[in-house]
Amino acid sequence: MWRFNACVGHNGWNGDFSYVDGYDESVRAMGEHIFKSGQATIDTIVYPYMFLVRHCVEIFLKRYLKSFGRIKGNTIIDDKLLKSSHDISSLWIMFERAFTRFDERTTEGVHKLKAFVNFIADIDPNGQTFRYAYNIENKLHLTNRNIINLKEVHEEYLKFSENIKNFEIMYCYLKEEYSCNTFTKNLSRIKIEEISQQLPNRQEWSEKNNIKEIIANIRSDYNISANEMNKCIKIIESNYKFSNNIGLEKKISLSTSVLKIYINEFLKIYKSCILRPKGFHKTSEEEYNYTIQCIKELKLMIKDELSKEDVLELYCLYKFNYAEYPEKYDEVRPSIALNSNEDENYMRREISQSHAFLGYGVHLKV
Fold first, then answer.
1. Which residue in 151, 273, 278, 296 has its CB near the most CB atoms, within 10 A?
2. Using alpha carbons only, what angle is made at residue 143 by residues 96 and 44, rounded to the nearest 5 degrees?
């Protein structure tokens, strides 16, 4: 029976997403019962079914309205309003305004949600229609409708549910991107990168007579002020990836010579093991012994030839490659450096066992 114990409250990882996922699963489960069992009484099950559908829509809108203010660091949604309002139309207006102005990549997702949300807002604007038979004025609900086709509603809900999941994926991606602070009031990271590709090399700006014209054209194309353009340029100049587009290099502390030695040792293992035509498990004793020898040489090199600072930088680079964005390196390094005294042996073991970052295109200059 223990497997039927649900973890709630502080027992487990619970939050708004638990409710959205739970109500979504309930709608799907009820749909299975209605359309496949053949035992549902359509004229009565319509009320709990539609209530679940509507509540799923409401808590989805509230969840993302509540978190929207955090993504750019400028809260524009009144949390008290979200807690007190059940008006789907009002919630949708706030949601649509927020996310169509937020980033061009969320606009399409918002449009895909609109039709179903408006349908729900029309049939049950304040969450009372399917909760109780009568309103506060003791009038029967739904007297302006004769039927609700649950099959059609369920098919549209499944589309809506899929669009929710796609929106959530995009939102999580953008939340991580915006945490890098590579945006301005009107420019997203992707637009700033576009601008970096349109600018000439930084050292040529003083020599080029048309640099003012280039910047003016960019401002016109993106409809931004001179002040916002200056903020954009500062972001480009300080970014590991974007600065490279204008001929600048933002370097890390790791020396080129140390990195080359390390990579060369790993390439010996890579070539002798992974690139072997017969495969790793179909190898001669001689080939096997060579691979083992390469591994030993790598570990010996890390132990005897790399300083503590070299190990720290290599380990930071390794950890950084689990991040999507180059500037995350600056977040990773301080916390690792803080504990480097007690973790040095662990870091040496990690960089001798992992070659994950050799397969990535790293936007860091050394």
1. 273
2. 90
* Cα–Cα dist 255/15, whole Å: 45
Dihedral angle computed from the Cα positions of residues 195, 199, 202 and 206, in that order, rounded to the nearest 10 degrees:
-130
Residue bearing tokens 């979200």: 82
CA distance 282 to 288: 10
What pLDDT is recorded for position 81? 72
pLDDT, position 239: 93
- Using 50 as the pLDDT threshold, list the residues of the chain that sit under it: 275, 280, 354-366
Structure tokens at 346: 């662990």
Calculate the CA dihedral of residues 70, 71, 72, 75 and round it to 10 degrees. -30
Q: What is the pLDDT of residue 349?
A: 77
**The predicted structure's pLDDT at residue 361:** 36
| Interior/surface letters 27-37, b for 16+ CB within 10 angstroms, e for the rest | beebbeebeee
C-alpha torsion 223→227→231→237, nearest 10: 100
Q: Kindly state the DSSP code that residue 134 receives in the 8-state scheme.
A: B
pLDDT in the model for residue 364: 35
Retrieve residue 323's tokens.
């991040």
